[in-house]
Inverse folding.
């Protein structure tokens, strides 16, 4: 009996190898979809039948809490590394390394692709090290200038690339022969971010963007059905942060309060300040006396829940605006007074308007399971659990806070 079992297993594996399948069958598939600035409550507007059906056939969370600051690059890196920005290194969309004087900016292609800024290990690197092939149809920070830190397959970021084309790209990867096919794929779309900034979260334009991204969710699932992979693929729909209304009437000109002589970086919800030499206490006191509609913190006294002090590139002073208010200097003021921007994000990550979504379905997930707020740093350990691989040590995320979503 035993010998017969061994023989049949041997025959099965021989057929498997001869048929060109080098990797063992049965490895899970995950598509991680990020909708930039898709706020947690956009799904209660009655505009999202496809995400609603993901919720009933899979799992859904009340919201996904971003890391501070609730900006795009810091949070996409938190999702993909399981670390707070202070640890993965991308502490803002723009910041300066005071030692080399180099400036990281999401608009500077040379810097944004320079691997030296990125201190965490992205999930695709963790996965590739352990035999899982990966791909990315866009993700903030991909690709970097070192091949070993990238997914095996990726597309170069192009803001205007049609969304349908992105989905077809993902489907084409899944149609590759089994031995070449990626098992982990990211997909990124920005429509709710664009429209949210321009017109605000309560605008008809944002409602259109919500409907559009929801239909695209349906299209992705339909295309998976077309290629007969719907039953084997786990799809996670999440977002990096939410959006809140801002106004040209609610501005705080920090440069006007302080005068010249300090380095002010960042505008809107968060500004970082490097005071002139020997001026730290004086600058702090001045801001503290004028603390209306914002809070000023010394880096060393940042409230613990921000997790925003353990990184030498964080400036000595951090100013956080009250939700809906915008911090400006004499240069950035003009942009905000024009009233062309009606929405923003980056504020305190406990402010609910900054929360995103988390919806998922597939063979790994429970069915019709609803939970409360999840933390985005826990997505990385969740991915490791689904693929049954070892997470990188010293991450901030915790499997215990999220694994109950799995079967
Ligand atoms: P923000 O709203 O300022 O936090 O940043 C959002 C912007 O990030 C979007 O408008 C995207 O165009 C941009 N973005 C997203 N992914 C990438 C990428 N891989 N490379 C460059 N820019 C990106
Ligand atoms: Zn974003
Ligand atoms: Zn944005």
């Amino acid at each position: 009996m035993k010998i017969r079992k061994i023989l049949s297993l041997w025959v099965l594996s021989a057929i498997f190898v001869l048929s060109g399948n080098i990797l063992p069958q049965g490895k899970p598939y995950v598509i991680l979809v990020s909708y930039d600035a898709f706020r947690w409550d956009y799904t209660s507007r009655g505009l999202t039948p496809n995400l609603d059906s993901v919720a009933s056939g899979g799992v859904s969370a009340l919201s996904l809490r971003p890391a501070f600051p609730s900006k795009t690059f810091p949070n996409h890196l938190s999702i993909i590394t399981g670390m707070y920005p202070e640890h993965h290194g991308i502490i803002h969309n723009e910041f300066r390394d005071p030692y080399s004087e180099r400036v990281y900016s999401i608009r500077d292609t040379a810097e944004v692709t320079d691997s030296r800024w990125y201190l965490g290990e992205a999930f695709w690197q963790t996965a590739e090290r352990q035999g899982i092939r990966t791909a990315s149809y866009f993700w903030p920070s991909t690709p970097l200038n070192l091949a070993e830190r990238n997914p095996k397959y990726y597309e170069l970021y192009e803001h205007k690339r049609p969304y349908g084309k992105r989905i077809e790209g993902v489907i084409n990867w899944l149609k590759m022969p089994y031995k070449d096919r990626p098992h982990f794929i990211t997909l990124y779309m920005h429509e709710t971010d664009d429209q949210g900034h321009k017109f605000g979260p309560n605008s008809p334009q944002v409602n259109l963007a919500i409907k559009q991204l929801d239909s695209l969710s349906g299209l992705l699932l339909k295309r998976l059905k077309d290629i007969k992979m719907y039953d084997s693929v786990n799809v996670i729909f999440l977002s990096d942060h939410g959006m809140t209304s801002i106004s040209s009437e609610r501005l705080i000109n920090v440069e006007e309060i302080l005068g010249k002589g300090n380095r002010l970086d960042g505008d809107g919800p968060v500004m970082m300040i490097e005071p002139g030499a020997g001026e730290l206490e004086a600058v702090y006191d001045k801001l503290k006396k004028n603390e209306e509609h914002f809070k000023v913190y010394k880096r060393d006294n940042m409230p613990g829940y921000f997790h925003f002090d353990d990184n030498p590139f964080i400036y000595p002073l951090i100013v956080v605006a009250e939700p809906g208010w915008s911090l400006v200097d004499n240069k950035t003021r003009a942009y905000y007074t024009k009233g062309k921007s009606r929405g923003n994000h980056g504020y305190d990550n406990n402010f609910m308007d900054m929360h995103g979504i988390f919806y998922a379905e597939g063979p790994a997930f429970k069915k019709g399971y609803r939970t409360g707020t999840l933390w985005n740093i826990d997505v990385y350990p969740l991915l490791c659990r689904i693929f049954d691989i070892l997470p990188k040590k010293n991450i901030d995320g915790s499997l215990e806070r999220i694994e109950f979503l799995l079967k």
In short: Residues 36, 71-72, 93, 106, 138, 140, 142, 157, 159, 188, 190, 193 surround adenosine monophosphate (ligand 1) (CB under 6 Å). The chain has two domains: 29-244+350-405, 251-340.
